[in-house]
Known about the structure:
By secondary structure, this protein is α/β, with parallel strands linked by helices. 45% of the residues lie in helices and 17% in strands. The chain has two domains: 2-213, P-loop containing nucleotide triphosphate hydrolases (Rossmann fold), CATH 3.40.50.300; 223-365, Rossmann fold, CATH 3.40.50. The protein is built from 14 helices and 13 strands. Strand 3, helix 6 and strand 4 (123-127) form a beta-alpha-beta unit. The protein is globular.
Amino acid sequence: MKNMFERLAPFIQEYIYQNNWTEIRQVQVAACDIILNTQNNLLLASGTASGKTEAAFLPILTNIYENPSDSVSILYISPLKALINDQFIRIEDMLIETDIPVTKWHGDVSQTQKNKIIKKPKGIIQTTPESLEAMLMRNPGNIIRLFSDLRYIVIDEVHYFMNNDRGIQLLCIIERIQKLIGKEPRRIGLSATLGDYVLANKWISSGTKRKCEIPVIETEKRIIRLAIKYFEIEEKEDEKSILNYYSELYDKTVNKKCIIFSNSKSEVENNISHLKKIAKERKVKDVYYVHHANISAILRKHAEEQMKSEDELATVGATVTLELGIDLGKLDRIIQTGGIHTVSSFVQRLRKKWEKRKCCWNDIFI
């Protein structure tokens, strides 16, 4: 482990010292070994807040530092803008002592910022599949300019793209970029919720001749406390049952830091609207926020900041926009309203608490 630390770039070593790390985690040692000592692709599967982002970026930034690229070096692809915004802060913090820039590229980012990286391609671009395809469709020349010497493609929450149209879209985009630049960048897939390693290996390696390595990471066992409560509301006009439901939801969130996951934006809005109303009636401070794709970037960011604040209580109603990999700090409770459509989604939402405490309480209201 000591030798692996010494192998990292000086600014990475300084970053580790400044953050008072007592050790390099197993997932980070494994990633450094594969990235620094082979030319293979890499798939990292370990829990949220286990250090996967650092595991990927510590060695690839070391490589870029030692052997600079003539264009953008690293293309980071995420399924969600919120996850990009969260990871941007962490990656930017690693790069304070360098001249390696990190640039967000999605619909909430101004064209001025995008033009800066087009004019001087360098460092890291963080984007979504849709923004990447828009870039490819509108001006293929920019793709060549930006990625002519691309070294790495990092795909976060890789399980989110497997076995669906969005994943096929992403692989097609990557193939087109590879053909335009005449290179085959190494691929690094990250996932906190991965069941089928064979399928994931096949997916991450599609369109590449490189071997993909999947290090086995031992994980600590955790105890889960799970509560399920069923509410039967036969008709929308059943006001008494509806009132009981929202009163129960309020009681489970009051004076706590919580996320209430729901399966639709309208359900999120209804939940938070009723909780705000109850809080007002009881003359309690309004600490309820909404987080989904149809609200403004400013409101989403404000909700994330309230959740990360150690000094403020907050309850955020969310769809999948807060499901994946975003570090929101210490949470008191996770609540799910309604049945969950997939096992992976259920596990991902529970992991929001697993990684913060060995024992937690999660409520599911159906």
